[in-house]
Amino acid sequence: MITEPEAGSDVMMMKTIARREGDEYVINGEKRNITTGSQADVLLVWAITNPHVDPAQGMTCFIVEPDFAGFEVEKEYKILGGLPGLVNSHLRFNNMRVPAENVLGRENEGFKVMVDELAIERSLYAAMLVGEAKPTLELAVRYSSERVQFGVPIRSFEAISFRIADMATKLQAARLLVYHAVRLIDAGFDAVKESAMAKVFASETFFEIAHNAVQILGGRGLSDEYPAEWAFRRARLSMIPTGTNEIMRFIVQREIYKELKESGGLSF
């Protein structure tokens, strides 16, 4: 759990503090926008363990169980496009005591854990979005083949069929970006740039496909008769989790200029 009221895209604004006391750490702070935070059996919590240095050198990751004394659920809420049965949580830690053995990695090296975890998470999230976009595209293809207007299926009109072509092309491109990112991770590379590329492109492709599917279905696309309207809400959500798409673009350009500086060339 990383996100806090004052630390979203800017994780360096993290205020949750962990203080070592013997064989335990005492954690105080709060986290919000945590998916299933109040339902999970085990959670990863990032906290500042050395406030006197740059947060990237002074944060630690802890394995936390919700029955630890001081673990509090402040609020649960639903969000646009959220999956049924899942909630987002605002959590508070009030002198929560965590055994020292529950440090994941080493003290003050939590930022490295975060970076490694986020590349994997973003790649997996992008893969999920490709999977959710596929049936939405299939719905638009089937409907445009069956819906007759002016005496012909609406797929006969280029205004429809060209949208289908663009949707299918971008979905395949998103899929290949995901494959590229996960192959790099499997090979032991960090894939920071590639996972960010996959996430931003997959989420925006899903949104475009969902938007076009609603338009192709017309009035029926706005009703719950078809899942297009749900896909539209789901796709809108997808551009925020695991890092907003603005942050994804920041990461991509940062890594590009880093490559140029370090090697004098680019990897694409």
Summarize it:
This protein is α+β, with helices and mostly antiparallel strands and 268 residues long. 47% of the residues lie in helices and 20% in strands.
Tell me what you see in this structure.
- The protein is an alpha+beta fold.
- It folds into two domains: 11-107, Beta Barrel (Butyryl-CoA Dehydrogenase, subunit A, domain 2); 111-263, Butyryl-CoA Dehydrogenase, subunit A, domain 3, CATH 1.20.140.10.
- Helix content is 47%, strand content 20%.
- Strands 1-2-6-5 form a four-stranded antiparallel β-sheet, with no helix packed on it. Strands 3-4-7 form a three-stranded antiparallel β-sheet.
- A hairpin with a 2-residue loop joins β1 and β2.
- α2 runs antiparallel to α3, α3 (158-186) packs antiparallel against α4 and α4 runs antiparallel to α6 (245-263).
Topology summary:
Elements: E1 17-21, E2 24-35, E3 43-48, H1 55-58, E4 59-64, E5 71-77, E6 88-99, E7 103-104, H2 110-146, E8 148-149, E9 152-153, H3 158-186, H4 192-217, H5 228-237, H6 245-263
Antiparallel strand pairs: 1-2, 2-6, 3-4, 4-7, 5-6, 8-9
Helix pairs in contact: 2-3, 2-4, 3-4, 4-5, 4-6
CATH architecture type of the largest domain: Up-down Bundle
Assign the CATH topology of the largest domain: Butyryl-CoA Dehydrogenase, subunit A, domain 3
Question: Which term fits the overall shape?
Answer: globular
Terminal Cα separation, in Å? 33 Å
Helix content: 40-55%
Q: Largest beta sheet, briefly?
A: 4 strands, antiparallel
Radius of gyration: 22 Å
Number of domains: 2
Structural class given helices, strands, pairing? alpha+beta
**Beta-strand segment tally:** 9
The fourth-level CATH homologous superfamily of the largest domain is: Butyryl-CoA Dehydrogenase, subunit A, domain 3
Strand order of the largest sheet: 1-2-6-5
The low-confidence parts are none
| DSSP summary: helix tally | 6
| Sequence of secondary-structure elements | EEEHEEEEHEEHHHH
CATH class of the largest domain, anyone? Mainly Alpha
Mean pLDDT: 95
Percent range for β-strand residues: 15-25%
